[in-house]
Amino acid sequence: MSRFPAVYSTENGRSEVDQFLRGLPVDAMAMCRAKMRALAEGEMELERPHVAFVEDGIWELRVRWHQSQYRFLFGLLGRHKYIMLVPWQKDQSAIPRSSIELAKRRHSEWQRRNPS
User: Fold this and answer.
1) What architecture is domain 6-113?
2) Please, how many CA atoms are within 13 Å of residue 62, restricted to the half-sphere of its CB?
3) Mean pLDDT, rounded, for 8-20
4) What's the rounded Cα separation, in Å, for the pair 24 and 8?
5) How far is Cα 22 from Cα 84, in angstroms, rounded to an integer?
6) How far apart are CA 30 and CA 26, in angstroms?
7) CB proximity list for 86: less than 8 A, separation 6 or greater
8) CA–CA gap between residue 87 and residue 71 (Å, rounded)
9) Quick check: pTM over 0.85?
C-alpha cells in the first residue's frame, strides 16, 4: 500500500502545498509527488542531496525537474510520517527566513490540532 505524507491545510481546508502542486507542469507535479511518496515509504534517507535538515524540527525536501528546483519544508510526525508545510520554487541560494518561520508555525499548529 502506497503511503503519502500529510499535507498541511488550514482549519478551513486550504492547502498551499496542494495549490502549488496543481500549478506545476504535469511532469513536475508527478516528480514532486514521487519524491514525497518515496520519503513516506522509507525509500529515501533524511540526508543530502534529496533532504536537508533546516532547524527546530523542520526539514527540506529537494526536487529537481529539468532546470527547475522545487522545495518543500516539512516536519516529522513519527517514523516515516511527515507533514509537508511550505512549498516554493527555488530562485535563490538560501531558504527564505519567512518560509522557515511559517513552517515552524504550521508544524506547531498541526500538532496542536492533531494530538497523538
Assistant:
1) 2-Layer Sandwich (3.30)
2) 15
3) 91
4) 18
5) 15
6) 6
7) 8, 16, 17, 72, 73, 99, 102, 103, 106
8) 6
9) yes
Domain limits of the chain?
6-113
- Can you tell me which residue has the cell 525536501? 61
CB 71 within 8 A of CB 54: no
pLDDT tens-place string over residues 40-91:
888 877 788 899 999 999 999 999 999 899 999 999 887 768 899 999 998 8
Which pLDDT score is estimated for 30?
95
Cell 513536475, residue located: 28
Separation CA 113–CA 22 (nearest Å)? 26
Three-state SS letters, the chain: CCCCCEECCCCCCCCHHHHHHHCCCHHHHHHHHHHHHHHHCCCCCCCCCCEEEEECCEEEEEEEECCEEEEEEEEEEECCEEEEEEEEECCCCCCCHHHHHHHHHHHHHHHHHCCC
How many C-beta atoms surround the C-beta of residue 85 within 10 A?
27
